Amino acid sequence: MNKRIRKAAVIGSGIMGSGIAAQLANAGISCLLLDIVPQRLTDAEMAAGLTLDHPSVRNRLATAAIAGLFKTKPAPLYDNAFAERITPGNLEDHLALIADVDWVIEVVVENLEVKQKLLTQVERHWKPGTIVSSNTSGISINAMTEGRSEEFRSHFLGTHFFNPPRYMKLLEIIPGQMTDPELIQDLSRFCERTLGKTVVLAKDTPNFIANRIGTYGLLVTLREMEEKGYTVEEVDAVTGPAMGRPKSATFRTLDLVGLDTFLHVADNVYANVKDEAEKVVFAAPESLKQMVSRGWLGEKSGQGFYRKI
Ligand code: NAD
User: Where's the 3-hydroxyacyl-CoA dehydrogenase C-terminal domain (predicted)?
Assistant: First the structure.
């Protein structure tokens, strides 16, 4: 393998996709950032007389994600000028451009079927030699590429970045059954040397290592809070800055992660554990499900455990 990574494509321009694109841009790598085509016009687009087939509408999600990088704190980019290395686009018009990149990173919603469908489309345009990885929080790497060719699968693995990608050093790398061992070594070296990551190799077990442990801790904390009548603020006071952990207050972290994503992650491990005692721990509390169905998704929707001002 031993190839250089100069160009990448990130598919999915949400919290993580935009942050990963920013980190790649910071490292000098030019990056396509692709998302789905919007199905509805915004009020501003309607007022401007645009139609759904206008390129600015079709590319709106990734374009808005890049604009969002300038407003996010802590800053995802070393400097705003680095954003010039990120090119926004949409999947329908621009997916074929992945034939020209060295690394494709899938960062769409945490749903096996959505990821499988996307990887089927990716393989149509993929050229051997290009690495393809998923940023899944815990869905099986092997299941994601079922039905794909052996050659594609030999180039595929999990690269689990943490939020926010520029600041979190940990990167879990999860090889699939067929991943080329040389590719694992090369990509690990690249992520350590060029992206400054600390790589931990994980097995393809539900939620890998970090989210298996982390989800356990968060769900137990949430349940204890409700049963014992603690408040969100009290729990954050004893798990955050006052405890010498400036970035890790429990519910601030969940708002940053996204409550929908956290629910998907909890449901994934619940669906995959067999032991009854483990099922009890990993069953998502009703209160969390209700928050998500109400659209309380955390910082990205403006309301989660905290209201964003
Ligand atoms: P998000 O909800 O912020 O963004 C998801 C993006 O995917 C959206 O922009 C959406 O339009 C796009 N999308 C949805 N369906 C698509 C499709 N079919 N094709 C292309 N794009 C599609 O989610 P996120 O928090 O960025 O999470 C993305 C992935 O990263 C998930 O697998 C998640 O588990 C993982 N992850 C999230 C975090 C976190 O802290 N949020 C941390 C590590 C890993």
Answer: 208-307
What's the ipTM?
Answer: 0.98
Kindly give the distance from the C-alpha atom of residue 281 to the centroid of ligand 1, in angstroms, as a whole number: 25
Domain co-membership, 214 together with 196:
no
What letters, b where the CB count within 10 A reaches 16 and e where it falls short, cover 10-38? bbbbbbbbbbbbbbbbbbebebbbbbbeb
Tokens 């600041």 correspond to: 167
Same domain, 238 and 282: yes
Nearest to 175 by CA among 153, 152, 207, 206: 153
232: containing domain: 210-300
Residue 46 contacts by C-beta under 8 Å, 6 or more apart in sequence?
none
Ligand 1 mutation pick, 34, 37, 109, 267, max ligand atoms within 8 A of CB? 109
Reported as a single tens digit per residue, the pLDDT across 151-185 is 999 999 999 999 999 999 999 999 999 999 999 99
Domain of 152: which CATH number?
Answer: 3.40.50.720
Residue 308 belongs to some domain of the structure: no
**What is the CA 248 to chain-centroid distance, rounded?**
19
Q: For the chain, what's the residue count?
A: 309
